[in-house]
Amino acid sequence: MDELRKIERKKKRFAVRLKNSKKIICTDVPGLNIVLCNVGQATGFKKNDLLLMLEKITPEPKVLKFIAEKGDSHCFIVFNRIEEAKIFYDTYDGTLNSNSDVPLYMSFVESVPNNEVICSSRNPEGLTLIEGFITEDEETQLYQLFDWIDESNLKNRQVKHYGYEFRYGSNDVDLDKPLDEKIPQKCEIIWKRLKEYGINFSIPDQLTVNKYSPGQGIPSHVDKHSPFGDTILSLSLNSSVVMDWKHHNNKYIPVVVPSRSLLVMRGEARYDWQHGIQPRTWDPIIEVRKIDNELVKVITSETKARGTRISLTFRRTRQGPCNCCYETLCDSRVTPNLDEVASHLEDLHVHQVYEQIAGHFSSTRHKPWPKVVEFLQDIPPGSIILDLGAGNGKNILNRNDLLQIACEYSVGLLSECSTFTRACCVRADVLHVPLCDGRADAVLCVAVIHHFSTYARRRQAIATIVRLLRPGGRALVTVWAKDQSKSNYLCKDKENTESDTYKTVGVHLPVHQNRTQFKHNDVLVPWKLRKVKENKLENESSQTLLRYYHVFEEHELEELCQNQGVIVEKSFYEEGNWCVICQKI
Amino acid sequence: MKLITHNMLTSKCLKGVVTGYPLAIHATDVKINEVDFNPEFVTRIIPKLDWEVLWKAAQSIGHGEGLPQVIQPKYEEDSEFLKKAHRVLLEVEVEEGYLTCPESGRQFPITKGIPNMLLTEAEVQ
Questions:
Q1: Hey, are the CB atoms on B10 and A380 less than 8 Å from each other?
Q2: pLDDT single digits (tens) A123-153
Q3: Buried b (16+ CB within 10 A) or exposed e, A546-578
Q4: What's the ipTM?
Q5: Could you report the per-residue pLDDT of A418-453, keeping only the tens digit for each?
Q6: What is the pTM of this model?
Q7: A382 to B113: CB separation less than 8 angstroms, yes or no
Q8: Cβ–Cβ < 8 Å for A245, A255
Q9: Contact between A381 and B35 using a beta-carbon 8 Å cutoff
Q10: Which residues on chain B are in Cβ contact (under 8 Å) with A405?
């Protein structure tokens, strides 16, 4: 009896603690959720222990969720049916746990912690994970070959180089000082096998072997662009690990890298993403689930211990500046002339293209965009509206009670605008709008900012809009979205198999395949030019021109408006475009 | 180029130029294009303009006759004035000519009624 009262007291104290720490309420009312008050991750209690207990009371033990958070000496169970939860409670509450002499006690709870993180299930573009790339025998052989006692003084891990020494200070190699030890012959099976997967690459000449003990990691990094080629291979031995992939647009994707797998990093994954491994002795269990018909990765609160892992990173050395098309992390691209390159690129692939396609382009765009009409419907008579990048003036309203000023770079489009609309036309660049500060009641900038090729120039475009607005004035800004899945743009049967890149102004840019999902943020989009003859479009296209676009990720446009003196009132996706309505403070 | 547009134009984006306003007009061809008269619009737009700049611009191209140099109180009730303002703001068009930056002297051509305010990369701030 004493024992029972003792447990009741413990339960009460636990309930108070749980309420304070996790805002979870214990209850006497049976439900689906149970907390085990004195066992958990910290006491070594695992999902398997739970399953063993369940086996004894039901033939096919099933729980929906088992949540044992790191460092906690309690854990949560979510059952499928209340009956099962009740039986479990009645059978085990207050009974002795097999590996301890303290009775197990538990309580029903109103809720369970939800620390799960949901991420995209799609790996970074250019990242290929080949599981079971080598056999267990091969793994054993390689592991023995590289399992050595500490030879270096790197804090976090043990490391050895072949072919060329990787210099940690400059993150490159000294091509004049090749090492005597080349990549061991045993590794050559990798090249042969990889070719069978249809992956083309230059045979690596540099290998870095890292031995990670549990608890060791590697900070987030990108392999420096210019010293190494476009394909980097990483083979994992002995233990799996969760590798974190981060993109500078804030995307985060955890990737489970099992032992015996080969990671092939190319394209965006190679050049535009950073990867790293957290220094811990465990990894979260990552599940793939279907939520709203979409596959997602879920970082659960369950964990798995890490073992010692050896990773083999193969690279191909190279000379000269990098010629990738991913500016952000590129060591060859950080030049003071970035703005000049950008302006040259925009001149060739935006301004000149629009000039050439003006007639054809104009013939495909007549009506104001419904969102523009909506945006301007409540604007009072006598308002000043600026349309920056007005094109042929399709968004100019036929109203005589507004002052509408159209700024446009292309002479061809501007002359259409001037002939067919009421707008006052000015030939100007959106980065340097020749209009007085703070006079506009509203600014439109529709499908323009995606033509600026650097982050700084895109920020500057927003800054210009803000400069022109009067305090309280509002702007509608729209840009093309990278994600076209919710628009009419995509052609169902077409898949983006793009592999073409086009070298222009010294950079390689991918050429997009029209009517397919975008694979890259910075792309050249083909325009098949058709001539206009006697007011009719010719059927045959005479020439293909490439327009430069920076297609936007979700939230990227809002981010661009941050700290610029405007409040984003509304942000939405419309027909393949990200849009914001913002108000000047 | 209508004078209402001119009232908003500046060359301040030029390197070394502080205000770049107002731009001087040199017109070689000026036309009158009739536009429907909306007294409410004219009434409401006037406070948003720099009237003195408008008056000088109108004088400089010979279309300022009868236009008061200063806005009168209760101008919104003076329909003759509103009509005159309407004409100067919206109907007088500089078809050909150029604009000149008051600080740097840089000229911006006006062709077929459209001022070309493009700057080269080297000219901007």
A1: no
A2: 999 999 999 999 999 999 999 888 765 555 5
A3: bbbbbbbbeebbeebbeebebebeebeeeebbb
A4: 0.98
A5: 999 999 999 999 999 999 999 999 999 999 999 999
A6: 0.57
A7: no
A8: yes
A9: no
A10: 5, 8
